[in-house]
């Protein structure tokens, strides 16, 4: 089922609380990997003529190096880092979710607002979008659009997600684990998307050494050390206004 939604994607920065007493935990990946691109660099169109475009600050999907992760959620959350230079030059952003046969499940587009940082994109449960099927792979991509008339210059990151059912043992452990300790449990159980969505601290906790340490620890454990000190900002990064509208 295809859902074209330009205004319903729950796109926001991370503003949830962060547990102070959770135990720092590295991510333990499942024994599986899929092709994908978690970093996108620009060398064409509006991305050129700047040393910043070739720097280590790249459009980045916050996913493991294996480009695959599990979720328990019917409508999961995705995290993407947008560097300042690319945000300033972008005409807009686009998120696409396909099933494992390449059929489009969901697509939404946004105008860019010259902002940067870590974006949080949650699939909407109220937009006639069916929940992710258990055991089925889904491919997702996020693009920054440079020129609305020339998609060849877009910056793109992409990865894979699968909704899974926890084993009876894990389900029991989840039900008995305090909320502040769930990110650590998810991380060591290989449930990436839920671990990072619940663990990500907002910028207003940047002085909280425990929160910052755990955020860095999780990102460092999957090789994202170069952005592990970046926290989500307190303002929206993309509007819900479709391309071409004011």
Provide a brief overview of the structure.
This protein is of the alpha+beta class and 246 residues long. The protein is built from five helices and eleven strands, in the order E-E-E-E-E-E-H-E-E-E-E-E-H-H-H-H. It has helices at residues 84-89, 168-176, 182-188, 192-199, 209-220; strands at residues 3-4, 10-12, 39-40, 59-61, 68-71, 77-82, 92-99, 104-111, 117-122, 137-145, 155-163.
Please give a structural write-up.
This protein has a six-stranded mixed β-sheet with strand order 1-8-7-10-11-5, covered by helices on one side. The protein has a five-stranded antiparallel β-sheet with strand order 2-9-6-4-3. It has five helices and eleven strands; from the N terminus they run E-E-E-E-E-E-H-E-E-E-E-E-H-H-H-H. It is of the alpha+beta class. The N terminus and C terminus are likely disordered. Helix 3 packs antiparallel against helix 4. The chain has one domain: Macroglobulin (MG2) domain (Immunoglobulin-like, Sandwich). The chain starts with a strand and ends in a 26-residue tail after the last helix.
Overall pLDDT metric? 78
Give the CATH level 1 class.
Mainly Beta
Helix content: 10-25%
Strand content: 15-25%
What is the CATH superfamily?
A: Macroglobulin (MG2) domain
Number of structurally distinct domains: 1
Architecture (CATH level 2) name: Sandwich
Instruction: Please count the beta strands (DSSP E, at least 2 residues each).
Output: 11
Shape: globular
Order of helices and strands: EEEEEEHEEEEEHHHH
Which radius of gyration do the C-alpha atoms yield?
17 Å
> Poorly predicted ranges (pLDDT <50, ≥5 residues)?
3-23, 234-246
The SS-based structural class is alpha+beta
CATH topology: Immunoglobulin-like
Distance between the termini: 30 Å
**Main sheet overview:** 6 strands, mixed
- How do the strands of the widest beta sheet line up side by side? 1-8-7-10-11-5
Number of helices, counting only DSSP H or I runs of 4 residues or more: 5
């Amino acid at each position: 089922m295809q859902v074209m939604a330009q205004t319903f994607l729950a796109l926001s920065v991370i503003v949830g609380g962060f547990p102070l007493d959770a135990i720092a935990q590295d991510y333990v990946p499942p024994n599986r990997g899929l092709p994908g691109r978690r970093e996108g660099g620009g060398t064409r169109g509006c991305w050129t003529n700047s040393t910043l475009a070739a720097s280590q600050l790249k459009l980045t999907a916050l996913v493991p190096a294996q480009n695959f992760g599990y979720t328990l959620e019917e409508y999961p959350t995705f995290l993407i880092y947008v560097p300042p230079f690319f945000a300033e030059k972008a005409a807009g952003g686009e998120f696409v979710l396909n099933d494992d046969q390449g059929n489009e499940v969901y697509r939404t587009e946004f105008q860019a607002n010259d902002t940067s940082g870590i974006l949080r994109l949650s699939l909407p449960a109220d937009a006639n979008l069916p929940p992710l099927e258990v055991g089925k792979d889904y491919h997702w991509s996020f693009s920054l659009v440079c020129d609305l008339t020339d998609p060849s210059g877009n910056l793109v990151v992409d990865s894979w997600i699968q909704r899974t059912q926890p084993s009876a043992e894990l389900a029991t452990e989840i039900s008995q684990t305090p909320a502040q300790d769930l990110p650590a449990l998810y991380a060591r159980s290989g449930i990436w998307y839920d671990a990072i969505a619940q663990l990500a601290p907002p910028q207003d906790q940047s002085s909280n050494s425990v929160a910052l340490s755990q955020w860095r620890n999780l990102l460092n454990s999957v090789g994202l050390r170069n952005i592990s000190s970046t926290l989500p900002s307190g303002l929206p990064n993309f509007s819900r206004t479709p391309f071409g509208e004011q």
